[in-house]
Amino acid sequence: MAVVSLTAGAGATTAEVIKAAGSAESGSDHPIAKAIAEHARTHGSLDTVTKLDNHPGLGVLAELSASAAAGATTDADTSVVVGRVKLLEEEGLQVAGELQQAYAAEQAQGRTAVLVGWGGEARGVIAVADVVKPTSAEAVRDLRWLDLRPVLLTGDHAAAARTVAAEVGIDDVIADVLPQQKVAEVVRLQEEGHRVAMVGDGVNDAAALAQSDLGIALGTGTDAAIHASDLTLISGDLRVAADAVRLSRATLRTIHGNLWWAFAYNVVALPLAAAGFLNPMIAAAAMALSSVFVVTNSMRLLRFR
């Protein structure tokens, strides 16, 4: 994520908007929050957050000291809201028509837009865009090659989601969903008979990762996602997810081969030994050779690439 544009409304400057938003978002691990906070730091120091209330899928409500609240003229802490229109409306902030238009225009361009407000009204709009990793399109192709159907499940605006999906080659897009709705989508797919693996890295993904048949977290993500997953990929490279599926399938094939050998061997050898056709020493040696075969067959996985 990266900040690509900033619009200030009446009664505020762009410097005030980015400082207030960056200060409020500095306490959050969400990718959008990180992008805004990092952008704000390039324009000056951030102020201390005295209280942070995170609204999953909507935004944050932060209490900032008087110096942090852009335009503040009192010594009291001031509340700054950063997030979707719905969150500002819930907190009683008015959104002027010009900011509503700017908000809609950014979304129409496939960007993720957030509003920034304090003092009873919205003060600006910040647009953030996804910067797709160069390896992501290759990762999607790898998943398709494994006969898996990739789906983009995101809380971002539908236009932004479709833009990214088209870039990486994903046809199925489910956007504008809150964390609980992500869980509902996973459940829906499961009820349709699908086995669902989900890859996620954010706090908002944790519940859906836990619900999935296989939850895969990126090691570069949040602790909540890592704890909720079944498998953690140390790298942030999505191609590793396809490698994990390949390794799992190779491991399962090896297990099946070992079980088939052990079953067939015992079906043939045990009756012969019980009937006295096998010398005990030969039977013991054959049993040891069986174990050697199983171990040797399993060690072939060390050559997996």
Overall description:
The protein has eleven helices and eleven strands. The protein has helices at residues 14-25, 31-41, 85-90, 97-108, 136-145, 158-168, 179-191, 206-211, 223-228, 239-274, 280-299; strands at 2-8, 49-55, 59-64, 78-83, 112-118, 121-129, 151-153, 172-174, 197-200, 214-218, 231-233. Strands 1-6-5-4-3-2 form a six-stranded antiparallel β-sheet. Strand 5 (112-118) and strand 6 (121-129) form a beta hairpin. It folds into three domains: 2-129, Calcium-transporting ATPase, cytoplasmic domain N (3-Layer(aba) Sandwich), CATH 3.40.1110.10; 136-242, HAD superfamily/HAD-like (Rossmann fold, 3-Layer(aba) Sandwich), CATH 3.40.50; 245-303. The model is unreliable at 68-75 (pLDDT under 50). With 305 residues, it is α/β, with parallel strands linked by helices. Helix 5 (136-145) runs parallel beside helix 10 and helix 10 (239-274) runs antiparallel to helix 11 (280-299).
Which descriptor suits the 3D outline?
A: elongated
> What is the terminal-to-terminal distance?
31 Å
Low-confidence stretches: 68-75
Under the CATH scheme, which class of the largest domain?
Alpha Beta
Number of structural units classed as domains? 3
Q: Could you tell me the mean pLDDT?
A: 87
CATH superfamily of the largest domain: Calcium-transporting ATPase, cytoplasmic domain N
Structure classification: alpha/beta
Count of helical stretches? 11
The strand count comes to 11
CATH architecture of the largest domain: 3-Layer(aba) Sandwich
What CATH calls the topology of the largest domain is: Calcium-transporting ATPase, cytoplasmic domain N
Q: Strand-and-helix sequence, N→C?
A: EHHEEEHHEEHEHEHEHEHEHH
Biggest sheet statistics:
6 strands, antiparallel
**Measured on Cα atoms, how large is the radius of gyration?**
27 Å
Classify the helix fraction into a percent range: 40-55%
